[in-house]
């Protein structure tokens, strides 16, 4: 997995979070992260002095992308086009740092950064559901929004409580189709159809 020695902070976070998910936070050293990035340990220290700094930066990047999505939802009129773009934007987040962030919290529950992140993440997911359900939602709207967002979140996870659910591309396609199918009646109702 070694790379060229010109890794950016984003690449370092990606490599480190992958190693943390695969090997465990406690079993991965800064030296191993540096080697996987094709860097010296001193070069890695230029960006990140501790593993905790890497984790916090990666989780913050994921959180920032969700906040950006919330801002976009606030600035965009509800409707079928917004639903499609919302689904695609959330899937794009989960194709990258979102998947690693969620998988990290599941595979490394003892890491101190997890607790704060978990609460923030639940709050942000709740906000996504609220924005999609719309103002003064009825139970159907809340359940549709919850199920759509939930299917997209689960697409980021290779394992579910019932076991593996296929490769990343299959999960993504299935979650996209399901989320749009769930949201279509909600969009139609909001549009007065």
TrEMBL record:
GO terms assigned for molecular function: DNA-binding transcription factor activity; transcription cis-regulatory region binding
Keywords assigned by UniProt, alphabetized: DNA-binding, Transcription, Transcription regulation
PROSITE patterns: HTH_TETR_1 (PS01081), HTH_TETR_2 (PS50977)
Transmembrane segments: none
DNA-binding region per UniProt: 29-48
Record domain HTH tetR-type: where: 6-66
Leader sequence segment: none
A matching Pfam family: TetR_N
Entry annotated with the keyword Ribonucleoprotein: no
Family matches, as PANTHER family: HTH-TYPE TRANSCRIPTIONAL REGULATOR BETI (PTHR30055:SF234), HTH-TYPE TRANSCRIPTIONAL REGULATOR RUTR (PTHR30055)
Protein name, per record: AcrR family transcriptional regulator
